[in-house]
Please model this.
Amino acid sequence: MTEILRIHNLHKVFPGKRRRDRPVVAIGDVDLDVSAGEFISIVGPSGCGKSTLLYIIGGFLKSSSGVVEFNGAPITGPAPARGIVFQAYGLFPWKTVLGNVEAGVATRGLPRAARRQEARRFLDIVGLSDVERLYPSALSGGMQQRVAIARTLAQDPELLLMDEPFGALDAQTRAQLQTELLDIWELSHKTVVFVTHSVEEAIFLSDRVIVLGHRPSIVREVIHIPVPRPRLRETVLEHPEYPALNRRVWDLLEAPAC
Model:
């Protein structure tokens, strides 16, 4: 498979807010390669730098040292080819649902009529065609997150970055959106890097689970998920290797800092 993302010897250090404060080493030394079409999840203890790593890949933060390359070129800033979905939705409150998704299509430089047609196509994919004229304030959290996913997909990114996108949702809505995300992924085969605190979510969604250690982060282990696709939740939970996979990830998360 073609390598789309390469991270080697990545370090990230945040300076202290005041002169006498010590710098904070958020990421100690991370190596990670991601292939085109792969779905990987990143898990780790709270504060270990999962989101920081994602924002470096997205180009919103600069690394302190190391190599971060997308399609063989250094990442120097944000780009439509690397779309991101945030936990906090990030919708434009003054735009309708359709207008929010059109904003994603606009990055592709299409004429107005084509933008609207494409926006409606992605709203249909996430099941929100019937609310295109509503504003975000009229939507539930799950519906707002669907709009955010549709807007990012409408950019047609090669790499989809997701920062705990379902973390603020109730359990039922979260499970539903996980299944819908897999359905979308099966259709598009976008490359996905997904940050989550949920071990079950990571195993259910992913080809590989990347387990980070305590800050300053290193990759403690890369765990391959052998469950065949397409997946149903019951298929994953009843897979004979699921208990051992789940226990292994938790053992790594609960291990003391090195």
About this structure: Residues 171-188 form the longest helix (18 residues). The first strand starts at residue 3 and ends at 14. The helical segments are 50-58, 97-105, 112-125, 141-154, 171-188, 199-205, 233-237, 242-254. The mean pLDDT is 90.
